[in-house]
Amino acid sequence: MTQLGVSCEQRSKQAYEGSIGLHRRRRSCLGSILWIGFPSVICATEISCSKRVIYHWQRHLFDNAAIVFADTKPASRQLELEAEVALLRAKLAKKEHVIAALSEELIDAKKLPGAP
Fold first, then answer.
1. Residue 60 has pLDDT above 50, yes or no
2. Does the pLDDT value for residue 103 go beyond 70?
3. 70 HSE (CA, 13 A, CB side)
């Protein structure tokens, strides 16, 4: 026990539970404002904070929402198309090589004496 009759463990537990309560209140308040259309002034008075805090929470949410909803993984259809493009490019390169070889042989055959 400490001087106020509350142990260090109890104080840390209270602080942890208080932070969870804060997150729940913040989430509930922002949800009410954004999705239900509840006035922010009323919400601020219900959870005992100022409107400025509510607006700060909203700005923080909007600034970080892009990170949450960003599509970091390409779609499977896009991956299929990229693989098909790579395959077609390989085929084209092979055909270009064959055409170049045949053209070279034809030019060499025309250079021979007595060739048509």
1. yes
2. yes
3. 7
Token readout for 89 is 């490019």
- Its pTM stands at 0.38
* Measured CA distances, 24 to 16, 21, 47, 57, 64 (Å): 13, 5, 11, 13, 18
Tell me the HSE value of 60 on the side-chain side, using a 13 A CA sphere. 9
Helices and strands in the chain, H and E counts: 4, 0
Please count the other Cβ atoms lying within 10 Å of the Cβ belonging to residue 25: 15
Closest C-alpha to 38, from 53, 57, 21, 46: 46
Domain span at 63: 1-70
Q: How many whole angstroms separate alpha carbon 48 and alpha carbon 67?
A: 30
Same domain, 51 and 31: yes
Tokens 């409107």 correspond to 51
